[in-house]
Each structure stands twice: as C-alpha cells, then as structure tokens.
From TrEMBL:
Organism field: Natronococcus amylolyticus DSM 10524
One cellular-component annotation, GO: plasma membrane
Domain Mechanosensitive ion channel MscS stretches: 116-181
Protein name (Swiss-Prot/TrEMBL): Mechanosensitive ion channel MscS
Family indicated by similarity: Belongs to the MscS (TC 1.A.23) family.
Domain of life: Archaea
Transmembrane regions: 31-57, 69-92, 98-118
Length: 301
C-alpha cells in the first residue's frame, strides 16, 4: 500500500514558494533589463544625439530661441524613447497599453480643467517658432518693457530695466501688440526741445543738427532730421536720430550724451530753453459791466 511520505509533503508545501521566488526573480530580471535599456538609450541621446542636433541647428543658422525650443522637445523625445524601449525589451508592454488609456483620459480632463495652461502651451509653440521673438531682444507690451531672457512653452521670462525677472504668460504676448525694438538692427531716437518764441529757430535747428552729426554713435544714413513739431506756450523742436546698436543701455547713453551736449550748445548760443510756467504780463486789468460794454459797442458803430 502506497502512502504519502514526508518528502512529498515538503515538496508540495515548497512549490508555491518556488513559484513566487521564480516570479520575483523574473520581475527583477525585467526591471534590470528596463533600467539598463533606459540608461543606455538616454546616454546615447544625451551625449551623442542632442549635441549633434544642436551643432546641426547652429551650423544652419537657426535662431537661438527656435534652437533651444527644438532641443527641449528633443530632450523629452529621448526620455520617452528610452522609457518605451525599456518597457518593450523588458516584456512590460502591458504597461504601455494601460498608460495609453490613462494618457488619453488625462488629456481629455486636462483640456477641460486647464484651458489656460493649454492656451499658454500653444502660444509658446507659436512664440518659439516666430522669428520676431528671440532671446536677448528688447520688447515693449502693455506699458511694460524688458529684455527676453528665456522662452518656455508656458511662459516667457523677461528681465526689466529695474533688474527684475517676470514670467509673462505666453498667451498675454500672443494676444497683445508687442513691439520689438531691435528686430531691424537700428532704432530711431527722438529728443524734443522747447524754446521761446523770441529765440532764433534757425540757430536751434542748426545746433541740434550739428550735435547729431558730431556724435560718433549716430548714423549718417538715415540722416538726422530736426523739425518744428508744435506751437503752444513754447515752440517744440524735435530731433530724430538713428542708432545702430538698439539695446537699452546704448539707447539711454546716447540719448543722455546728446541731450547734455545740446543744452550746453544752446546756452552758449544764448537760446533760452522754453518754460511752460506762468508768464509775466504788463498792463492794466479792469472789470467792465455787460451794459457798459454794450453802450461802448453802440457808440463805436
């Protein structure tokens, strides 16, 4: 009569543990395969593909803004490719299938719950691909101004002339008029001067023109223009100059140097810079009743 020995019972008891240990070892092997694959692909992308891409874009003369945007997208692409390849080689394809469903659901939810964020992302794409927006440009928008330091897909970082860095939502820049002062490589600088009616306007125009012509940073072409622009309590004369390096520091320096020089030259020429304050009046002031004024008018007739 055959019986069940103690060895058989032990083997039966250990079989679930053996299966669990085998599954655990298989999982460790798959996880190791995943890590090695991700590390290798990311290393190749990070140290070979991305530098080669950056060099190719630089050799083609791609604008810095667009180049950095492409490099950011390429970096994300390298990470995604490394993860996908690692999961496939490790036999964890089911994770990709479930992840695809989760990503689709998340995208739909994101579209409803974060419309502003999505709008900024879309605006960021337009800004990055727009050749009129480049890092280092001096821009003005909505009574604000500054130099673009970085363009990201959600916001653009601008350094103001108070040395503050502000993050401007990309949708704000695409929805409003933005002036790029340095896009064309030169910038017009205007300096208004107010003089009295009794001053010699020909001398004023001549001095403003001569000071502009003598300044080494003022372009000869287009040539400086000096015009009388307003006749109010004083006469306004405006000098329009063109400079070749339209960054804010150069702009402010040239404007200050030009203004100081014309003040000195006008004072030497005896020109009194116009004052808009009260003017002295000579004579008598009297009050005449309406009936008296009517009688005088009748007598004059």
């Amino acid at each position: 009569m055959c019986g069940t020995g103690p060895n058989t019972n032990v083997v039966s008891a250990l079989r679930p543990l053996e299966e669990l240990l085998g599954a655990y070892l298989t999982l460790l092997d798959n996880f190791a395969t995943f890590l090695v694959t991700v590390a290798l692909i990311y290393a190749v992308g990070r140290f070979v593909v991305l530098p080669a891409l950056g060099l190719a874009l630089e050799l083609r003369g791609t604008e810095r803004t667009l180049r950095e945007g492409i490099e950011r997208v390429a970096t994300v692409g390298v990470v995604v490719a490394a993860v996908v390849a690692g999961l496939s080689l490790a036999g964890l394809d089911f994770v990709l299938e479930r992840a695809a469903i989760l990503v689709a659901a998340f995208t739909v939810a994101l579209g409803f719950a974060a419309q502003n964020v999505v709008g900024n992302l879309v605006s960021g794409v337009f800004i990055v691909t727009d050749p009129t927006f480049n890092i280092g440009d001096w821009i003005r928008w909505n009574d604000k101004e500054g130099v673009i330091k970085d363009i990201r897909f959600r916001s653009t970082r601008v350094r103001t002339f108070d040395n503050e860095v502000i993050a401007v939502p990309n949708s704000e820049l695409t929805a409003n008029a933005v002036t790029n002062t340095v896009l064309n490589g030169r910038l017009r600088l205007t300096v208004p001067v107010r003089v009295d009616y009794g001053d010699d306007l020909d001398a004023v125009v001549r001095i403003l023109s001569e000071v502009a012509a003598d300044h080494p940073d003022v372009l000869e072409r287009p040539e400086p223009i000096v015009r009388v622009t307003d006749l109010g309590e004083t006469v306004e004369v405006v000098a329009s100059l063109w400079i070749a390096e339209p960054d804010r520091i150069t702009y402010g320096r040239i404007r200050s140097e030009y203004a100081r020089e014309i003040v000195d030259r006008l004072e030497e020429a005896g020109v009194d810079l116009g004052r808009t304050g009260p003017q002295e009046i000579a004579g008598e002031i009297g009050v005449v009743s309406r009936s008296a004024a009517t009688d005088e008018s009748a007598l004059d007739r």
